Amino acid sequence: RDIDRLIQGVLTPSAGGQDYLVWYDAYLVRWLKEMAAVVGVALPDDARCLKLSCEARAYITERVRSAYPGAVEAIGALREMGFRLFTASGEHSRELDGYLRGMGIHQHFETLYGPDLVNRGKDSIDYYRRVFAHSGVAPEHALVVDDNPQNLAWAGSLGAATCLVSPSPPARVETTFVVSSLSDLPTALGLSR
Questions:
Q1: What is the pLDDT, as a whole number, of residue 20?
Q2: 96-101 long-range Cβ contacts below 8 angstroms, 24+ apart
Q3: CA–CA distance, 192 with 93 (Å, rounded to integer)
Q4: Exposed, middle or buried by CB within 10 Å (0-12, 13-18, 19+), for 69?
Q5: For the chain, which residues score pLDDT lower than 50?
Q6: What are phi and psi of 163, to 5 degrees?
Q7: At what angle do helices 125-135 and 149-157 cross, to 10 degrees?
Q8: In this predicted structure, what is the pLDDT of residue 142?
Q9: pLDDT at residue number 109
Q10: CA distance 100 to 109
Q11: Is the torsion defined by CA of 79, 91, 99, 117 positive or negative?
């Protein structure tokens, strides 16, 4: 129950139009304080809590093994074929860095776009506008891959090609194409190793 409340807090990063970077630092402090309260541990001031949260995030994320089957190989194949790869995630770029280092594929990505790099949560079309502007990649030269049809609709409305990753896609979805898993992406793009 306490964990559910903490998780819900991270799922609404731009609530009220709040500055993402300010929100995220406050979230990290609150996350640590609430977890400490659950187990009865006293904590220092907010500045030290923020530092401890950042240290915990760095330690934990590199140890997470969360790759979907075939995803690591697909990412490697795309990079070998000359594709420029970026993330477009709701996760903070430092967390993405840890996860991708843990999977051994960090080196394949040019930039890890989390909301912190564009100061906008991944909850509106503005996130994609900012990612395209920051990366210097014109939307019409991009393929956005996601498991969320709404995210793809935003990216597609800016001119990007889109790919939905879903083993059971909705009957009607506005996307360039659909794959059942990320491991199918190189084949869907007409690539072979």
A1: 86
A2: 97/61, 98/57, 98/58, 98/60, 98/61, 98/62, 98/64, 99/61, 99/62, 99/64, 99/66, 101/62
A3: 30
A4: exposed
A5: 14-15, 192-193
A6: -135, 120
A7: 60
A8: 97
A9: 97
A10: 9
A11: positive
- What pLDDT score does 15 carry? 46
pTM of the predicted model, to two decimals?
A: 0.80
Phi, psi of 85 (to 5 degrees): -115, 135
Predicted pLDDT at 63:
85
- Burial class from Cβ neighbours inside 10 Å (0-12, 13-18, 19+) for residue 47 reads exposed
Give the torsion sign (CA, 167, 176, 193, 136): negative
* Token digits of residue 178: 């659909």
- Rounded CA-CA distance 174/23 in Å is 32
* Token pair recorded at residue 166: 């879903």
Q: Tell me how far CA of residue 143 lies from CA of 3, 53, 104, in angstroms.
A: 35, 34, 23
Q: List, edge to edge, every strand of the sheet that includes 143-146.
A: 143-146, 161-165, 177-179
Q: What share of the chain is helix, strand, coil (3-state, %, to 5)?
A: 55, 10, 35
Q: List the structure tokens of 36.
A: 């400490």
Neighbours of 45 (CB within 10 A): 8
Place of tokens 């502007």: 133
C-alpha span between 80 and 74 (Å, rounded) = 10
Nearest one of 154, 184, 153, 191 to 166, comparing CA atoms: 184
